Amino acid sequence: MKKIKVLAAISMLLFAYSNIYSFDGERNGFILGGGIGGGYLSNSFSYESYSTNDNRGVFLTNFKIGYAPSNTLEVYYISKVSWWGETDINYALGLSAIAVSFYTDKETETGLFISGGLGLSTLSAPFETDVESSNGFGVFGGAGYEFASHWNVEADIFYSAISESGVDMNSFGVQLTINVLAF
Fold it and tell me: Strand, helix or coil at 11?
């Protein structure tokens, strides 16, 4: 609940200070977006002398909110979450990060962009009441192409390191999402 309140406060501040003409087709100003996709996730777990690896396909969700000071630069909060099921439990490995995107073409609304960010990585089972979440460090970097106004496809490389109660989990993922962005 605290995370939602902080996100709502940041959103209101960004909206208050953004260009009054937001959502006018120009990227500069308030931005809001999301997407879905798929990917591959490789997890390695170690505890004392025991270690194991887990490789799997995952479903992805992507949420983005922030501000673009120009048509070529975006600064935003992003939540990238990898979802999978195992033994009747749904797991989520998420990255809540501060990120930036740089668009190479400032004249049109389409074109190539690169993005990256770092923040808090969380492993949880969000629909289970008796499973606690674990937190650590996460980072992502990638590139994408805006093929139509407000629509893009993005490929990212994701890394997460979570260490809690003597258990270390390192995750490496490749993600591909289709996103829509309101600006």
Answer: helix
Q: Environment class of residue 166 by beta-carbon count within 10 Å: exposed (0-12), middle (13-18) or buried (19+)?
A: exposed
Give the DSSP per-residue string, 25-92: S-SSEEEEEEEEEEEEEEEEEEETTEEEEEEEEEEEEEEEEEEESSSSEEEEEEEEEEEEEETTEEEE
Domain ranges of the chain: 2-182
pLDDT tens digits, one per residue of 76-92: 999 999 999 888 889 99
Residue 131: φ, ψ to 5°: -115, 120
pTM, two decimal places: 0.80
Give the residue among 78, 30, 21, 86 at the shortest CA–CA distance from 58: 86
The domain 2-182 having CATH identifier 2.40.160.40: the answer here is: no
Indicate the helix (H) or strand (E) that contains 4: helix 2-17
Of 156, 134, 157, whose CA–CA distance to 47 is shortest?
Answer: 134
CA angle, residues 39, 45, 51, in degrees to nearest 5? 130
pLDDT tens digits for 99-131? 999 999 877 767 899 999 999 999 888 888 777
